[in-house]
């Protein structure tokens, strides 16, 4: 087992628009992904923030070792208070220590709260700026407002569309739990995506990556 360390933050939209096939897809794929992270390294820690009417930190009050993290199916309802999630993330990062981190933001729609001030505060956090970030959209592209996703990740290239394939995301996790410049992180995103599409992997360095389970919405 690769004794890789770091913290993976998942910020997941559980608003009413995520009901039905979308939340079922997330629950299925996240369960697979958590198991995959545990197989990659039990030293990695997990934090899960969900948001709808407000936001909450699931499974404790701080990131916990993936070996102790048990995925519990999420339910949906309410609005899209992503700013509340940014506030919790800011608080978590402020007390997280110096471990490298990767942040996944998963959403299907447009924020309904005043998210910009909270994101502005988050961007003043050096640990957020040093973290590697990916946004994942769920649903039709016409439903998604890219503005807040680009503002969150810093670059459009870090937005993935309808991609919660566990093996694919493990490629990012395996590579990302280090500190990179934004240019280096973009190179990794392109490298993972290119290797995934061409199916050219080094088994000593990558998880098996496959996009075949992407969904049409």
Order of helices and strands: EHEEEHEHHEHEHH
Mean pLDDT: 79
Number of DSSP strand runs: 7
Known CATH architecture: 3-Layer(aba) Sandwich
Which CATH class?
Alpha Beta
Q: Major beta sheet, specifics?
A: 7 strands, mixed
Q: Assign an overall shape.
A: globular
Strand content: 15-25%
Residue stretches low in confidence (pLDDT < 50, at least 5 long) are 196-217
Q: For the record, what is the CATH homologous superfamily label?
A: von Willebrand factor, type A domain
How many H/I helices? 7
Can you walk me through this structure?
By secondary structure, the chain is α/β, with parallel strands linked by helices. It has one domain: Rossmann fold (3-Layer(aba) Sandwich). The chain contains seven helices and seven strands. The chain has helices at residues 21-40, 82-94, 115-122, 126-130, 146-153, 166-176, 182-198, and strands spanning 6-13, 44-52, 54-58, 64-65, 101-107, 132-137, 159-161. Strands 1, 2, 3, 4, 5, 6 and 7 form a seven-stranded mixed beta sheet that branches. Helix 5 links the parallel strand 6 and strand 7 (159-161). The longest helix is centred in the first third of the chain and has 20 residues, at 21-40. The protein starts with 5 loop residues before the first strand and ends in a 19-residue tail after the last helix.
